[in-house]
Amino acid sequence: MSQGRVADVIIIGAGIIGAACAQALARRGLQVLVLDAGLHNATAAGMGHLLVLDDNPAELALSDYSLQRWRKHAPDLPDGCAYRNNGTLWLAANAEEMAVAHSKYLNLQAQGIVCELLGAGALRQREPELREGLEGGLLINGDGILYAPATANWMLDTPNIRQRRARVTEVDGHRVRLDDGHWLSAGAVVLANGVQASELCPELPIEPKKGHLLITDRYPATVTHTLVELGYVTSAHNAKGPSTACNIQPRPTGQLFIGASRQFGTTDPQVEGWMLAKMLKRAAHYMPGLARLNGIRAWTGFRAASPDGLPLVGQHPQRQGLWLAVGHEGLGVTTAPGTADLLVAQLFNETPPLAAQPYLPQRFLGEPVYA
Amino acid sequence: MNEYADILIIGAGPAGMAAALAAAPSGARIVMLDDNPLAGGQIWRDGPQASLPVQARQLRERLQSHTNIRHHAGTRVIAHPGPKQLLVEDDDHGWLISYDKLILCTGARELLLPFPGWTLPGVTGAGGLQALIKSGLPVRDERVVIAGSGPLLLACAATAKKHGATVLRIVEQASLTSVAGFAAQLPRWPAKWLQSFSLFNRHYRAATHVIAALGTDRLEGVRLQQQGKIVELECDRLACGFGLIPNIQLGQALGYAIEGQALAVDTWQASNRADHYAAGECTGFGGSELSLAEGAIAGYSAVGDVEQARQWWPRRARWQGFAKALNQAFTLEPHLKSLARPETLVCRCEDVPYAALTEHSDWRAAKLASRCGMGACQGRVCGAAVEHLFGWQPSALRPPYSPARIETLMCLDDTPPA
Amino acid sequence: MPELMLDGQALRVADGTSVAAALALGGNGCSRTSVSGQRRAPLCGMGICQECRVTIDGRRRLACQTLCRDGMQVETQP
User: Could you say which of A327, B118, B172, B303 would form a disulfide bridge with A311 (CB–CB 3.0 to 4.6 Å)?
Assistant: First the structure.
C-alpha cells in the first residue's frame, strides 16, 4: 500500500455486489475497505432468487456462470445463508406461453443447462397447489434461493476486509470524500451501491424500480420450486408502467415469499395497498390456495435498473481509478459471483472467465478518455 | 362489503366502551372493533372462569341497548388504504370501513423479558395466565409462581387461587421500600383497589426476581434471586410479566405522535391528526378508572359535546395521579437487563438467541442479520424486549398490521391512484 | 357445552372456553413447534405473542382469541 492510501481498494456499498467483490479481491491478497451508509437497500429487501435468465445471450452467460459458481461454493455457506437448490418452475398458462417455454428449453439445453419441460399433468403432480388449467411449465433444476443479507455478511467476514459505517458524498477517481469531510484514497475505488450510485455519479443511467414483497406464516411442504409465470419475462420484466407477475418462493422455513411488482418513477418506500392487492391477486391466480394463507409482513425495495437490463461492470471511462459494479436490477444476488470475477479480472488485467464486453460501462458512458 | 361509521372505535375495553357510550346519545353511527371474542378488554375479560364486576356487566348491557352502536368482535385492523379508511378482518372475511372520526383504544400489553427457560410450556405472562384462566384454563392443584413487577401480579394470584391453584410465591422485582411507599398511598384510592392489594400475603417477596425457568420439555421449577439468596422451587406454572406497555403500533402506523412510549393526546384526547383520538392504556398506563374517564372524554369530544367532555376532566386528573404513583413505585431495576444468557432466545417467532443481537448497534441491522422481529408477532414481543434491553427503537409497523389472510389483502382496491 | 375435535380426539368444554384453554383441557397445552424444534404453549393470552397459532377448521388462527364451538376441528401444529 502506498503512502496516504487506506486500502488497495475501497468499495462503496456492502450489499451483495460490494460484498462479493470485496471477498474476491481480499482472497487475491488485496487490502479492502468497504464503506456502507447503513441504508439497507436491495440486498436487504430482495427475494434472494438464484436463476438463469435468457432474455439475451449476455444475460444468460452472466447468470449461468454465476449459478455454476453458487452451486460449487454452496457447501461453504453457513446455515444462516439458507441456500437451497430447489429449482425454478416457469409456468405457462396457455399454448402461447408453452411455446415460449419450449423455445427457452431448446436455448438452455443448447447451453448445457439442465432443464425439463412439463405437461399439464406433470406440472400439477410436481406442484399440487397450482390451479387446474395451466398448460405446463419449464423446470430449471440448477436454480436456487438463499438469504442475501446473511450471505453478504459472510462474504464480508473474510481476512483483508475492513468495514466502516460511513456515507460517501463525493467520488474523485481513486479517492472518496466522506460526509465528515475527510478524503480517503486507495489504489482503486469500486462503486457498488445500487440505486445510490447515481447520487455520486449523475451520469450513470440507473433508475430505481420499486418492488413489493410479502411473506406468509409457516406452511411447510406447500410448494417445492420457485414458481414464476412466463408472463414475467414478456410483460413485467420489460414493461414501462406498473406491473405485477406471479412469483412464489418457498422458504426453507416453510414460509412462502410472494412477489413480484415493478414501478418506475417513485422513491417512496411506503407499501402501497393497491399494488400489494394487484400482486397478490396475480399470485393467487396461479395458486388459489394462497388466498387462505396468512401474510405476516409486507415491504418494498428498489432495484437498480439499467436501460438494457444488464449491469455495468468495469472501469469508468471518464474517471480514472473509479470502477463500477452497478445496475443489476433483479439479478444482483444471482450475478454477484460473476460480477466479482469480471471485476477482479479487469482490475488485474487478466482474461475474464466470461466475455466482459456486454457489461462494460462505456456502452452508456462513451469511450475511455485515458489509456 | 364496505361499512361506514361516523365514529369508529378500535378496542372494546373500558376506554372503548366508555367512548361508545359517550358518543351514543348524539345518534352518531358508531362501530366498535375488538380482536377478542367478547367486549371488556383485558381487565374485564369474560369467560367460564371469569367474574365480571357489576360495573362491567352494566356497561356491556348499556352498549347492547344502543341501536346505533355496532360491535364487531374478533376483528383486527389490517391496513389503512385511505385517509379515513381501514381494512379489517374477522374469522370469516375482510372488509373496508370508512369513518369520519376514529378513536384508538388499543390498550396495553405485558412487557415480557427473556430469561433462561422462558420458552418452556408452563411459562406465561402474569396477565397472560390470568387471561387464560378466565377463558377456562384448568389450574386446580397446580403449583404456581407469579413473578415480574406490578399490581397485576396480585390480581393474577387472586385469580389463580380462586380457581384452585396453589400460589407458592409472588415475586416482585421492586424493592420493599418502593412497594411499601406505594401501598402507603393506597388509602387515597377507592376500596376496590385496596381489596386486591395485600402486602400481608405471606407468599409475597419484594426485591426478588426469576433467574431461570427450569425443566426439559415443560416447566418443572424456577430459580429465584430472593433478596440476595438463590432459591429453587418446584412448580407447574410460572406467570411472569414486567408491567404493562402501551399498544402504540397501530397509532404510530396511522401517523399519531408518540410521547413517552405512548400515543400523544391533548385534553380532548385528540391526537395530532384531525378527527383522530385515543384513550385508555394506549395513551399511558393508568388502570380502568382512568381509561373510563379518557374514553368518555374522547367520545364526547368526537361528537362535539364539549360541555360533557369537560365534566370528566376532574375524574381523569384524579386517576392520572394514581397512575403516576403506580409507575414510579414499580420502576424496573437494571439487573433485569442481564437475565438473558447468550443462548437465551429473544425472538420467539424466529428463535433468535441473545448472542445473535449483541454485535449490532440498532434494530434494523440486528433484524436483517438475525431475522429477529421478522416473525408473526411483528416484533411486538421481541421489539419491546430489545427496546428495554438495548434501548433500540423498533421501526413503525407496515401493513398488514396483524397477520391477515391474503384474501383479505386482496380486498384492497387494485387500481393505481390517479 | 360445545364438543370439538382436538388433534383427532373429541373434547367437551364449558361454554365460552377458549381454544387455548381447550389445549390444556384435552392435551398437554402445547400449540406448536418452534423453528428450532421446541414445543410451545400460549404465552401472553391476549393475541400478541402468536405462540398459540393452531389450525381451526382449516385456517391458521390464534387459540387464545377463539372460542370453542360445537364441531370445531382443531389441529395443533406438529
Answer: A327
pTM of the model: 0.95
Which one of C21, C48, C59 has the shortest CB-CB distance to B132? C21
Is the minimum CB–CB distance between C22 and chain B shorter than 8 Å?
Answer: yes
- CATH 3.20.20.60 describes domain B2-109+245-326: no
Give the phi and the psi of residue B153 in degrees, each rounded to 5.
-60, -40
Q: Each residue of B256-275: pLDDT tens digit? A: 999 989 999 999 999 999 99
**Residue at C73: amino acid letter:** Q
* CA distance to partner chain C, nearest, from residue A256 (Å): 14
What is the C-alpha separation between A248 and A254, in angstroms, rounded?
12
Domains, chain A, in order of start with CATH, read: 5-45+148-206+308-365 (3.50.50.60), 88-141+207-305 (3.30.9.10)
Alpha helices in B303-356 (DSSP H): 306-311, 313-329
Single-letter amino acid code for the residue at B384: A
**What pLDDT does residue A3 have?**
56
Contact (Cβ atoms closer than 8 angstroms) between residue B14 and residue B291 = yes
- Give A161-199 pLDDT, tens digit per residue: 999 999 999 999 999 999 999 999 999 999 999 999 999
Q: What are the residues facing A178 on neighbouring strands?
A: A168
Percent of chain B with pLDDT over 90: 86
Identity of the residue in C17, C49, C53 whose CB atom sits nearest the CB atom of B135? C17
Chain C: touching chains (3 or more CB pairs < 8 Å): A, B
Assigned superfamily of B112-242: FAD/NAD(P)-binding domain (3.50.50.60)
Same fold, B2-109+245-326 and B112-242: yes
Beta strands A161-165 and A32-36 are parallel
Which amino acid is present at B141? D
> Contact at 8 Å (CB) between B376 and C54?
no
d(CA A30, CA A43): 24
B132: exposed, middle or buried (Cβ count in 10 Å: 0-12, 13-18, 19+)? buried
CB distance B205 to B172 below 8 Å: yes
Label residue B169 exposed, middle or buried (CB < 10 Å: 0-12, 13-18, 19+): buried
Contacts of B127 in chain C (CB under 8 A): 44-46
| DSSP state for residue B159 in the 8-state scheme | H
**Residues on chain B touching C15 (C-beta within 8 angstroms):** 48
A168-172 and A175-178: which strand pairing?
Answer: antiparallel
What are the strands, taking DSSP E only, across A130-195?
136-140, 144-145, 161-165, 168-172, 175-178, 183-191
Beta strands of B47-128 (E only): which ranges? Answer: 69-72, 76-82, 85-89, 94-104, 108-110, 123-124
In degrees and rounded to multiples of 5, residue B144 shows phi and psi of -120, 135
C40–A contact, CB cutoff 8 A: no
Confidence of residue B200 (pLDDT cuts 50, 70, 90): low
**Amino acid at the residue A206:** I
CA pair distance B329, B179, nearest whole angstrom: 6
Judged by a CB distance cut-off of 8 A, whether residue C35 touches chain B is yes
Question: Measured between CA atoms, how close is A227 to chain B, in angstroms?
Answer: 17
ipTM: 0.98
Q: Compute the nearest-CA separation of C61 from chain A (Å).
A: 9
The reply to whether C5 touches chain B by the CB within 8 Å rule is: no
